[in-house]
Amino acid sequence: MREVASILNVKVYTTAGESPFQNGLCERVHAITDTMLMKLEADYRQTKALRGKIRASEQIFDHGDSVFYKREGKDRWLGPGKVVFQDGKVIFVRHGGVFVRVSPNRLTKTKDINFREQNDNIETPDTNETGNHETRYTNKNTEVSRVEKKDCFSELSTSKERIPQMENIQAKIIPNLKENDKIQYKLPNSNTWTKATVLSKAGKTTGKNKHWYNVQDDIDEDKKSVDLDKVEWEKVTGDSDENEIGVNMTNSSFLNDEEIAKQTELSKLHNFDTYEECDDIGQNALSTRWVITTKDNQTKARLVVRGFEEEFTMQRDSPTVGKGMIKLFLSITASMNWIVKTTDIKSAFLQGKILDRDVFLKPPPESNSKKGKIWRLKHCLYGLKDGARQFYLSVREELLSLGCKQCSLDPAVFVKHTDQRLSGIICCHVDDFLHSGDEKFEEVMRKLRTRFVAGKIEEKNFSYVGFQIHQNKNGIILDHSTYMEKIDNTTIEPSRAAMKQDVLNTSEQTLYRKLIGQINWAVQVSRPDMAFEMIDMSTKLKEGTVAHLIRAIKASNRLKEIKSIISFPKMNKDIKEWKIIVLTDASLGNISNGTGSTESHVIWLVDNESNSCPITWQANKIKRVVRSTIAAEALSLQDGLESSFYHRRIIEDILGLKHQTIPIEAYIDNKSVVEAVYSTKLVDDKRLRIDIAAIAESLASKEVNNIKWCPGDKQLANCMTKFGASSYELFASYSNGEKC
Hints:
Helices cover about 30% and strands about 30% of the residues.
């Protein structure tokens, strides 16, 4: 009823049902409306007109629908735009950078359009002197006038509004280009491609000049403005001509961001020769799915194989560089006065080794593969179980062919020696390379980037696997503050916080584990001062209470209070002046209700000029129950020495030195352990005698040069085994590069 009244511009009144005074008025309104409806039904012409003008309010518009729309009081169709959401009788449409509120009767879906006229700009029909309708269609270069002779009094149902035909319109994609992007373009009537660098946009995103960009030609360095809507152009990536990947946007039809990203990814698969089409004769073909991500306002698509469907057993491990190795790398790089750099490999898995087995895929619909065809992979694709390993093996094979040597203790590290001297180091973390070296090593990296298409190549200031690395004239700084800033400030309801002794429920246990994981990652990288608190809280994972959760929340929030940085100063280039210092500490019965003990050690690489680079630190619960302080301290010293032996071996392997070239000194704040190691007097604990004998043997064989006692207030590892111990000296040592 209200719908019909709205069409006929009839105002609807409602009356109170319990008022006898109003009942007559209501009946008269009903009678008038009934009479009007009967007359309308009898008038065929008006019935046809109503059918032609019926409102579209019953049509449902979903988020993402592509539509044409009319503005209020205008006859011109605009669009296409995208539906954002529908709020009752109002639909919000995004057209470029503009949001428009539109009534449903002024909307039509593009997929429902089947009109004949192609046009970029339709003006309002005017009536000429002869009474005929004349519609002018204005194109960019020409203006075509067409006269349609129609009877002004013909039935409304025979007159159809003209809307741009979807199939014929060259709907231009607004190029999503940023400063320093590389493109190449070809001017009209020219067969020469001109390479250029994007400087900035030359017009507003939503204006008539939205396709204009300011560019600088790479050859003659001329600065000019180019309308990418009128020239053939490509966006190119990579640092070599033969490895460029471009996606031609000139002849693209109307695509949204996700569809453009999918076509870009399919183009990469083709350019890297990732697959070949073959006949489907019943092979076991794996299915795929698209993974869509948005980063820095750019939509990226990745075709991922459902690798779990493959019934094949293969080796799938792929080494990645560890946190301790990164610290060693930065220490050596700073000392050699090399520039630290990072290289990101684009579409890494697509550039891996050729598969030695047959893997068949069902092609995605977006590939437009012919019916009866499937894909046979030549290289690994994302999602396969051994994708990362295949890429690592290809990198390893290439680096070895270029004369590099793989580190025997860390397979993710490769070094290059020239004339028996270290020339460069490269650390691999899947497709992210961290490297430094001299000019001869840079030639190796240039050849490596010829084999693998590289993306970003940055130096001195960049982000690497979650760390911010900065290099200046004094050395290198590893900044972990970005990770700390991303940690959410967790809160708990006051009413729940009051129930301190209550056992954690399932969701609270999940939150507790998450907080412990965040603190543990921070401890391993840049916050050793919170090591003991992390160990103590981790012993409550199975029987945690609300009080433990509150403690974890407070500890997590404290991570942001101090800037988390580690300094790696330039050390003496004379390696003979280097030595390794290890400090160890332990506490008896201070966790697990007195049944557990903790141990810790900190290791530095120092020189004779008061410079020190932190290599690693560790704090753990002692693996066995100990009955005395001397036993706890001895086990901590033994673990610290083993860690220092391992890191010394890596340093000597990288530098090409003989074993045990770099001396090791150990410091402990327990005199009884020092006396037991140097003396022939046996300790009472017979099991401890074995550990003391192992330490004494290392001392006798010169694996460790000295084991010395230091007072407790000078023991930097003290704060890692005791709650409330001062950590200022430890902070000053690894944050400022001060000598420990």
